[in-house]
Each structure stands twice: as C-alpha cells, then as structure tokens.
Design a protein that fits this description.
single chain; 129 residues
C-alpha cells in the first residue's frame, strides 16, 4: 500500500492519459476520414501518428493503471475496466495485423474507423473506472 498523496498523484496521471486519449483519438479519426475521402492511400505519417499518439498512450495508461491496481486493488467496476483496458491495448495491434501491408484507400478507412472505435473503447473504460 502506498500513502494517499502518492496514490492520488498516480491516479491523476492515469486520468491525464485518459483525457489525452479523448482529445487525440477524435482528431486522428477525423484526419483519417479526411485522407480517406480524398481517396488517399494509407501513408506512413498517419499510421505512425496513430501508433504513437494512440497505441503508446494506451500502453502508458495501462502501465499506470497496473501500478494503481497493485498499490490499491481493484478499480471501482472491477473486471470490466480491466477488460476494456486490455481490449484498448490490443485493438490497434489487431487492426494492423488485419490490414497488414495494405496501403490502399481501404486501409485508410479501416485505420480511421479504428481510431474512432478506440475512442469509444476509451470512453467506455473511463466510465467504468
């Protein structure tokens, strides 16, 4: 068990990354839709931005969440919050595996939809924790 001040600080960091996802993912989704509507193929800049700003933030938030879990126990809603966090951590990896080396406009649509779906998963997870 950690002291209350340390716990609150770690919880604020976890909430900060949650808010960052709420802000970043819709922007990435809109950017992806914009590129897809313009019939552009999936480019490296967009896919890397989605990976760095989406996937890495989810992973960092998950690590902070695990620290909270170890230090204080279960989140308020228990398994559902943890399940949604695990889905969020694996979601873009699954999208990448599904698309593989496809750089067509179809892949651009899939990544844009993936950004919006990850946003929904993040909202659901935050409503359970």
């Amino acid at each position: 068990m950690v002291d209350v001040n340390t716990y609150i600080t770690i919880l604020r960091i976890h909430n900060f990354f949650s808010t960052a996802l709420w802000l970043i993912l819709p922007i990435l989704g809109l950017w992806g839709i914009f590129l897809a509507i313009r019939k552009q193929e999936l480019n490296v800049v967009y896919s890397r931005a989605l990976f760095i700003c989406g996937q890495l933030v989810v992973i960092v938030q998950g690590v902070v969440g695990i620290i909270l879990w170890i230090s204080e126990g279960w989140p308020a809603q228990g398994w559902l919050h943890i399940l949604l966090g695990a889905i969020a951590a694996l979601f873009l990896v699954g999208v990448s595996i599904y698309v593989r080396d496809d750089t067509s406009n179809r892949a651009q649509w899939i990544y844009a939809a993936g950004a919006f779906l990850l946003f929904v998963i993040a909202l659901l997870a935050s409503s359970t924790g």
